[in-house]
# Entry
Amino acid sequence: MNNKESDEYLERLWHMKENGKDSPSDFQSAIGANYDGKITDELFAEGLIMAADSGRKICLTEKGDERARRLIRAHRLAECLLQHVFARNSESGACEFEHIVSPEIVDSICTLLGHPKECPHGMPIPEGECCRCFARTAQSVIVPLTGLAVGQSARIAYINCREDQRLHKLDGLCIRPGVMVKVHQTYPAYVIECEGVSVALDKEIISNICVWQENKGHGPAEGEAAGGPAHGRRRRRMRFGKMFVGGLLNMIP
# Structure
C-alpha cells in the first residue's frame, strides 16, 4: 500500500471528525474522484479504521487516530513555518513535509515557533509532548513581544496576523520580520523603538508580534538542574531545530 495515499485517507477522516461527519458517503466525498476502495480495505485490515453503527459510520481506531494526529500536527506546523517564518503560503510544501520529518524534528519546530495552537487557517494543531512539557522543561526561543520588559530588545521573527490592512500598516512603520525592536514603555500603551523611530501601539497589536528571544543570562527552566540531562536535551533540540530551519531557508528560492 502506498503510504502517502493511505495517510491521505487517514487525514480526511481526521478532518471529518473535526467537522462532525462520519458516514461512508461523507468519506468518499472527502476523498473525491480518486477514491479507491482497495486502500480503504487495507486500512481496515491494518486496524487503522473501523465501521460502527452497523456500517453507517466509518471512523479512526485508536491506532489510526494516533497516526492521523501525527500527520495533521506535522502538516499544520509546516504551514505555520512557511507562513510566519518564510512568508510563504505553500500547501504542497506542507503536504510533503508531513511525510519526511520525524516526530523529533516536528517537536523542535513546534518549540521554535512557540508552540502555536492554530495553523494559519485557524485550525487547531494537535498538542505534542513538547507542548505538554513546555511549562516545566522548555523555554521557547520565539515569544510574543509582550513578554519583553522595558529596555529589552529583540529581533522580530514573524507577525501573527491575518488582516492585510493591519499588516500593511505595520510594514509602513518598518515593523516586519528581521527588524530589531526595543521596548520603551508598556503602560498605558506600548511604545517600541523600530529603525530609530518610536511607535505607540495597543497591546492587542503588540501581542501579534513574535520575536526571537535571547536566553543570555537566563538559567534552565524550573525543575531543571543546570547542565542536567533534561537541560542538555532541550539545548540539543533547540540547536538542531535552528539548523533544520536554516537548511530550509537555503533550499527555498
About this structure: The first strand starts at residue 49 and ends at 52. The CA atoms of residues 60 and 66 lie 9 Å apart.
